Amino acid sequence: MSQVITQSDSPLIYSVVLNWNQPEDTLACLDSLARQEEIRQKLLIVDNASTDDSVQRIQACFPQAEILVNPSNLGFGRGFNCGVGHAFRVGADYVFIANNDTFLEPHTISTLLRHMTRDVGLLAPAIYYASHPEVIWSMGGKTNRWNLEVIEDVRGKPDPGNWPDVLERDFVTGCGLLIPRETFERVGLFDDRFQMYYEDSDLSHSIRRVGLRILVIPGAKMWHKVALSSGGSDSPNERYWMARSSTLFFRKHARGIQWPVIIFWRMGSTLRTTLRLSLHRKWQSLAAYWRGLRDGLRDPQPQRQ
Known about the structure:
Distance between the termini: 45 Å
Radius of gyration: 19 Å
Oligomer: single chain
Low-confidence stretches: 1-6
Number of helices: 9
Structural class: alpha/beta
CATH topology of the largest domain: Spore Coat Polysaccharide Biosynthesis Protein SpsA, Chain A
Order of helices and strands: EHEHEHEEHEEEEEEHHEHHH
Largest sheet: 5 strands, mixed
Strand order of the largest sheet: 3-2-1-4-11
Shape: globular
């Protein structure tokens, strides 16, 4: 005989969304989260000191949601840490972390939850371009063991629709993550050095290092409006934080023989990026990119886990 599970018996999931001056995107994301079915959920918005009317608009449209307002813009890692820490203090069993420029199908979180087992550290949905709903933006990837670069071989390709139920991954993006309390108890919260970019690579790496699995569930679907929070691809802000965070990541996780391989690889990447930005006369982005590399090298040595 099958067991009947009531709503009160089901785990409590806090869906956490970070907002900074993007109320339209945040409201659309919250609307798709509020429509999630077959789960016991609370909505939590962390506002990173928006200077517009974001908080008032969110309160008016979602009075049932909880809102944490930070006194300053804490970035991705520290911003989400505020929300995750609050969620677990008030009894959450899981958190679902969602970028505010995403939206989901109604069964996305419940589909993820059905695949949670004790050896799984986090679950992620398949993610598509919002502008091209059948084209894959990310389904996670593998990590090259020598240079720690992520290998994503399906980005930008139409979904063939023949995926297995579960994909084992080394890495998933931070756009949408279902994470149990036990994972954060074992690996800690997001490393707040990563204000933008590479925080998902860092968390994925730490989760796998303690022996937990990372799974992408193709039956759970999310759509992403790419590169809105940073000002767009190759903007000065995007180039700065990408350069700084990547430098921090490799300093934190490289081991032994990986070092010469990574140095050689990153020198090539730096040269290619410099040439591309120069050819397109994006001088401000180029200057920001080199400042990011400098600041990533100057930052105190990241603590290894």
